[in-house]
């Protein structure tokens, strides 16, 4: 079967590999139908992800059909449509006991610590296989995993009815976080430096949009909230300057959620954290978000709505990464297909 494996910086190879076999009674083998390319995959493609072990088959936004089942898997049938959970965890460490398996001491993530979904068949555990109704198009189902990231960040930040939320960054995760926050009843402002992305955010429910290239974000937030400032700020960019700016945008008793990731240092004084009594919530991937997200997708509450705008056959995976890197304005969400 075909698999796309990265060996180093921009060294991506399409290889023929052996199809996985059932080796445990809890195993599930998925015939992959579609895989989303995430920004973190692009970091791996460029050799910039500090967690990945190379060579590696990338891909953690995976949907497909059940092809084979281990003998102990009783709640799935061959042919069922599946959304794949990207993480596996021990269930015993402190993080797992706290209900946070996404930061398990023994965490393994598909496409990072073990081979992911950019291959024709993928073996996972039954715990990672989430059934989704067959009426849901693959283009929508493939967004379930990034929607869980949005669900986790809004849950961590306690986003809810009537709260004001500023989302920094109108990329794919920013957009899906916007939709998730609107579904939870929040008033949402989205910021970016790309006007086309902001216009799309407005079309998808943003109450306010701000182009920070030519507008003062602090002034806009002050006016929008009548001086209260935002109850929650989610940084979906992950640059030191965007994280630092969160502290002047957030209200007293507010919450900041760093969702983007940078290894660069930010310069933040302690005073605003103490004076405003702020809470800073890290948000990494997701914990127990698949069930509510899949239900919301099946009920039409969370949709595709044009987020997926580029499709490539797995044989053209190099072209997909070329587009992502050379023409990012054309690549809202790229998916690989396996037809």
From TrEMBL:
UniProt entry keywords in alphabetical sequence: Metal-binding, Oxidoreductase, Zinc
Cofactor: Zn(2+)
Domain Enoyl reductase (ER) as annotated: residue spans: 8-336
Pfam family, one: ADH_N
Domain of life of the source: Bacteria
InterPro entries: ADH-like_C, ADH-like_N, ADH_Zn_CS, ER, GroES-like_sf, NAD(P)-bd_dom_sf, Zn_alcohol_dh
Gene Ontology molecular function terms on file: oxidoreductase activity; zinc ion binding
Gene3D superfamilies, per the entry: Medium-chain alcohol dehydrogenases, catalytic domain (3.90.180.10), NAD(P)-binding Rossmann-like Domain (3.40.50.720)
PROSITE patterns, per database record: ADH_ZINC (PS00059)
Keyword Zinc among record annotations: yes
Family the UniProt entry places it in: Belongs to the zinc-containing alcohol dehydrogenase family.
This protein's name: Alcohol dehydrogenase
Protein's organism: Liquorilactobacillus nagelii
């Amino acid at each position: 079967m075909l698999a796309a494996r990265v060996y180093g910086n921009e060294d991506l190879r399409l290889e023929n590999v052996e199809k996985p076999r059932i080796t445990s009674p809890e195993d599930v083998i998925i015939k992959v139908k579609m895989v989303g390319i995430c920004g973190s995959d692009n970091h791996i493609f460029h050799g910039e992800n500090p967690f990945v072990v190379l060579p590696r088959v990338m891909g953690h936004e995976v949907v497909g059909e059940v092809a084979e089942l281990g003998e102990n898997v009783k709640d799935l049938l061959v042919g069922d449509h599946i959304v794949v959970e990207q993480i596996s965890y021990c269930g015993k460490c402190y993080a797992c006991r706290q209900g946070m398996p996404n930061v398990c001491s023994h965490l393994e993530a598909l496409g990072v610590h073990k081979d992911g979904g950019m291959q024709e068949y993928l073996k996972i555990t039954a715990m990672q296989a989430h059934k989704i109704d067959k009426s849901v198009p693959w283009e929508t189902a493939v967004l379930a995993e990034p929607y869980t990231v949005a669900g986790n960040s809004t849950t961590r930040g306690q986003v809810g009815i009537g709260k004001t939320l500023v989302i920094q960054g109108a990329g794919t995760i920013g957009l899906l976080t916007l939709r998730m926050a609107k579904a939870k009843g929040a008033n949402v402002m989205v910021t970016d430096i790309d006007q086309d992305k902001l216009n799309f955010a407005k079309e998808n429910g943003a109450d306010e949009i701000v182009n920070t290239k030519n507008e003062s974000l602090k002034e806009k937030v002050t006016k929008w909230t009548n001086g209260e400032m935002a109850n929650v700020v989610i940084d979906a960019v992950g640059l030191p300057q965007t994280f630092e700016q969160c502290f002047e945008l957030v209200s007293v008793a507010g919450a900041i959620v760093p969702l983007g990731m940078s290894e660069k240092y930010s310069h933040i004084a302690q005073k605003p954290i103490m004076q405003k009594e702020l809470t800073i919530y890290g948000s990494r991937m997701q914990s127990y978000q698949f069930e509510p997200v899949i239900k919301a997708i099946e009920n039409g509450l969370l949709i595709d709505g044009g987020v997926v705008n580029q499709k490539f056959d797995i044989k053209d995976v190099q072209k997909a990464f070329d587009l992502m890197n050379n023409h990012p304005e054309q690549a809202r969400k790229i998916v690989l297909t396996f037809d």
